[in-house]
TrEMBL record:
Protein name listed in UniProt: protein-glutamate O-methyltransferase
Domain CheR-type methyltransferase: 37-303
Xref: InterPro entries: Bact_Chemotaxis_MeTrfase (IPR050903), CheR_C (IPR022642), CheR_MeTrfase (IPR000780), CheR_N (IPR022641), CheR_N_sf (IPR036804), SAM-dependent_MTases_sf (IPR029063)
Xref: PROSITE patterns: CHER
Record has Methyltransferase as a keyword: yes
EC number: 2.1.1.80
UniProt GO MF annotations: protein-glutamate O-methyltransferase activity
Species assigned in the record: Azospirillum doebereinerae
Keywords per UniProt: Methyltransferase, S-adenosyl-L-methionine, Transferase
The organism's taxonomic lineage, starting at the top: Bacteria, Pseudomonadati, Pseudomonadota, Alphaproteobacteria, Rhodospirillales
Highest taxon listed in the record's lineage: Bacteria
A Pfam family hit: CheR
Length: 307
């Protein structure tokens, strides 16, 4: 585990406070036009009641796609029938929750984007760092850890190239506690050899039978903690936020609320690394796009005080 210290404590003790988007939005499960007569709302409500996880902020398209996979597995053809199944089977509700939380992730996903991140953000942060204290990185929606460890490797490589010994603390967060448990182990199947170069495998992993384990010096850089970006307070003093392919599944008000939390978390000159096609909706004055292909943005510093 890394040296997150106060960051870890903030996540562990985070109070469940509603985001601005939550306060101003009518949920899928709320009463009214999309209330109890709506099978989609009934399904979301059944999962919330059984697991405590609220998917009402997901886009309807994402909800239907994940639900239809479970419907097919259960041999059902209608949303009403599946909603009735959830009412009597909390195990199925837990299975749907797991399906909803499933994230497609791998090491250095979209390699070109990670090359831009390494050259523009990672080396920039290392070369321009002044004063004591570690560079703080927040990987939001980290799933099973591949993205967080990929970024840790980029910082390790930058330290070697620049001949520096700067400290880096990466806090990787998710609401899926099972995924966090797997991430903290840092052990992956040998299939990652298709994603990670032989040089990186030799330098940053230890081969153990048919599995690769992340090397101890990389694992010490990363802390994993439960945190719900839609409810819990944002972190502060962050130099780089990485949140890839999470916003695309959220409705516009929820996306804006999450992006506002990232703005609050970032230093005035901090970097924001999003997934392909994701944009800082409504926050354009606060961010400028450095590289469209990588969706790498930088927070715009506040204007100087007028004389």
């Amino acid at each position: 585990m890394g040296g997150g210290g106060g960051l870890w404590e903030l996540c562990r003790n985070a109070a469940a406070v509603p985001s601005p988007a939550q306060r101003g939005r009518v949920r899928v499960g709320a009463s009214g036009a999309r209330g109890l007569d709506d099978p989609l709302a009934r399904i979301v409500g059944a999962v919330r009641a059984a697991t405590g996880v609220d998917f009402s902020h997901y886009t309807p398209a994402t909800l239907r796609r994940r639900i239809e996979r479970r419907m097919r597995a259960a041999g059902l053809t209608t949303m009403d029938g599946y909603a009735a199944l959830l009412d009597r089977d909390h195990g199925e509700a837990a299975g749907l929750c797991k399906e909803m939380l499933f994230a497609v992730t791998r090491f250095f996903r979209d390699e070109a984007a990670f090359r831009v991140l390494a050259g523009r953000a990672v080396e920039g942060l290392m070369a321009g760092r002044e004063g004591p204290g570690a560079i703080r990185v927040w990987v939001c929606g980290c799933a099973t850890g591949e993205e967080a460890y990929s970024i840790a490797i980029l910082f390790a490589e930058a330290r070697e190239r620049l001949g520096r010994d700067d400290g880096v603390t990466i806090l990787a967060t998710d609401i899926d506690r099972r995924a966090l448990e797997l991430a903290s182990l840092g052990a992956y199947s040998d299939a990652i050899a298709e994603e990670v170069s032989p040089e990186r495998l030799a330098r940053f992993f230890v081969r153990q039978g048919e599995r690769y384990t992340v090397a101890p010096d990389i694992r010490r850089t990363v802390d994993f903690a439960p945190h719900d970006v839609t409810r819990d307070p944002p972190l502060t003093g962050i130099a780089l936020v990485s949140c890839r392919n999470l916003l695309i599944h959220r409705d516009p008000p929820e996306r804006r609320g999450i992006l506002e939390r990232f703005r609050q978390a970032l230093r005035p000159d901090g970097f924001l690394f999003l997934g392909t096609g994701e944009t800082p909706d409504g926050l354009e004055p606060d961010f400028h796009l450095l590289e469209p292909r990588a969706t790498l943005l930088r927070r715009s510093p506040p204007p100087p005080p007028s004389s």
